[in-house]
Amino acid sequence: MTRSRVWLLLPAAAVWAVAAWLLWRSSLPAYHLPHLDEHALFPAGALQRAQHFSDVERLFWLGKTITQLAVLAVFTRYGVRWMRESAAGPIGTGMLLGMIGFAFVWAAELPFGILVVWWRHRYGLSGSYLDATVTNWFALGAQFVLLCIALGIVMGLARTRGIGERWWLLAAPVFVGLRTLLAFIAPWLLGGRAFHAPYVEPLQRIQHVHVPVRVLSGFSEPNAAATGLGASRRVFFWDPIVRPPFTPRMDRFVLAHELGHLAHNHIWKSLGWYALFAFPLALLLALATRGRGGMGVPEAVPLAIFVYVVLQLVALPLQNVVTRHLEAEADWSALRATHDPGAGRQLFRLFASETLEDPSPPWWDYVFLENHPTLLQRIEMTRYYRASVRETGHP
Ligand SMILES: [Zn+2]
C-alpha cells in the first residue's frame, strides 16, 4: 500500500471509531455486577452436569475449528490443481474451487456434528443424527448457492475495468444491503402461530413496541428471538419455552427481553456493526489475495476462503463483545419493564438445567463462544437491579 493510501485510511478509521461509539451507546447504567457464587445459586448436581456437558461440548468445537483450519490450509496449498481441468470461465472456475473448498470443510465438520448428537443424547438432550448428516447435506447445497452469489459479486467487481483492486469498497455495501434485505424479509419466511397471553399487551405498551408475537413449533430448545425491521418486526418463541417447566411469569420476562431488543433498535444496530466489520474484513481479504493475483482470478479463491475463515475467527471475540452488550441491554430493559427480577433469576437458573449451559464458563469459551452474558452474569444483573431499586426507589 502506498503512503498516500495509508493517509486515506486515517479519516476512514476516524469515521469508523465515531460510528462504533454511536452504536455502542445504550440505556444501560454504568453498572458493577455484584459477584455471586454459582455454587450458592445452582443445585450442586445440576451445576456439575451442566459443567461436564459443556466441557466436552466446547472441546468438540475446538476440534472442529482446528480440523476446519487444517483442511483449508491444505486446500489453499494444493486446491489450485483442480483448476486446470475447468473450462467454466474465470468466475465459474472460482465458484467451482469455492464449492470444493466448502465441501472439504463440510466433510471435516461431519464427524464432530455426529459426536455432538451422541453427547447430547447421553445427557437426555434432543439431537438428530438425520439432521447432523442428511439435513446437513442439504444445508451444504444452500451454502453453495450463497457462496456462489458472494464469489460472483466479488469476482465480478474485481474483474470490472476501473474497479479492480478496489472491489471491497463496493462489495461491502452490497453485502450490507443483502443482509438488510434478509433481516427485513426473514420474519415472514418463518411463519409460526399467533401467541396470546394477558401480559403481552401491557408489556408492549410499557416498552412502546407493538409487534406480533408468534410461536414456532418443531424446535427442541427453549429460546426466543426478536426479528425484523419496520413493518416486519416480530417476536418469536420457540415452542418449548411456552411449555412447562417454564412458567407464564418467566415467559413474560422473556417477552420483555425480546421487546427490549426491538425498543432499542438492536436489529438496526446489528446491521450497523455488520457494516463496520464488513469494510475492514473485505479490505483485508483484498490485501491478502493480492499475492495470488487478486480476487479477479480463480487462483485466489482457495486462499480467500482460508483467510475469510481465519478473519471470522479473529473477529468472533469482538462480535461477542458487541452482542453481549446488546443482550445485557435487553435484560436491563426486561427488568425495568417487568419489575420482576425474581422471574429473571428463576428463568436463568432453569436454563442451566434445561439446556445444560455452563453458568460460568472458562475464559476462552467466554471470549470465543458466548454471545450472551453468562447465566451467572445475568443473575447478577437481576441482583444489581434489585439493589439499585432498593437504594434509589427507581432503577
Ligand atoms: Zn436477546
Summarize the structure.
This protein has 395 residues and is mainly alpha-helical. It contains 13 helices and 4 strands.
What can you tell me about this protein's structure?
The chain is mainly alpha-helical and 395 residues long. It has one domain (41-392). The chain contains 13 helices and four strands. It has helices at residues 3-24, 38-41, 44-78, 89-122, 129-158, 167-190, 200-207, 248-263, 266-288, 301-338, 341-355, 363-369, 375-392, and strands at residues 193-194, 213-216, 224-227, 234-238. It has a four-stranded mixed beta sheet with strand order 1-2-4-3. Helix 1 runs antiparallel to helix 9. The radius of gyration is 23 Å and the shape is globular. The structure holds zinc ion. Zinc ion (ZN) is lined by residues 257, 261, 327, 330.
Biggest sheet: strand arrangement: 1-2-4-3
Q: Uncertain spans, ≥5 residues at pLDDT below 50?
A: none
The percent range for helix content is 55-70%
| Broad structural category | mainly alpha
Please report which band the strand proportion falls in: under 5%, 5-15%, 15-25%, 25-35%, 35-45% or over 45%: under 5%
Whole-number total of structural domains: 1
Strand count, sense and barrel status of the largest sheet are: 4 strands, mixed
Small-molecule binders: zinc ion
Shape: globular
Quaternary structure of the protein: single chain
Tally of separate helices: 13
In whole angstroms, how far apart are the ends?
Answer: 51 Å
Radius of gyration: 23 Å
Q: Can you write the helix and strand succession as a string?
A: HHHHHHEHEEEHHHHHH
Number of strands: 4
Query: What integer is the average pLDDT?
Result: 92
